[in-house]
Every structure is written in structure tokens, then in C-alpha cells.
Design a protein that fits this description.
Layout lengths: L7 E2 L12 E5 L4 E5 L6 E4 L1 H13 L5
Antiparallel strand pairs: 1-2, 2-3, 3-4
Length: 64
């Protein structure tokens, strides 16, 4: 299985040349996250699952 080819660097990663960056790519049904230091390790999730995780982080509610 091949991965996406549309990786984008997070604006929160800074503008330096270092490898300290979060990158995101999407396909029609999934989101892919990786750290630029180790681009072979990719976390794959759905938009709904990621939205629930972020909502839980924002509210402090671990049930999301």
C-alpha cells in the first residue's frame, strides 16, 4: 500500500530547517500524520476520530 503524496507541514512547526515538524496528508476517507524526523512512521485516522480527540483535549473530557 502506498501512502499519500500531498504532505503539508504544520504552521506551528516553525520556519527553521530542522526536522521538528508535524506533517499532515489526506485521502478521501483518512487523515495521515507523521513527524518529519521519522517519515516512515505514519498515524492514520478518520476526520471524525481526530475531531473527537481534539474536542476531548480542548475540554479535558477523556470520553471523546
Amino acid at each position: 500500500m502506498t501512502g499519500p503524496d500531498n504532505w503539508q507541514k504544520s504552521t506551528f512547526s516553525g520556519g527553521g530547517d530542522g526536522n521538528n515538524c508535524l506533517e499532515l496528508a489526506s485521502t478521501p476517507t483518512t487523515l495521515h500524520l507523521r513527524e518529519s524526523e521519522d517519515p516512515t512512521t505514519v498515524l492514520t485516522t478518520t476526520p471524525t476520530a481526530l475531531a473527537n480527540l481534539l474536542a476531548g483535549i480542548r475540554t479535558g473530557d477523556s470520553r471523546h
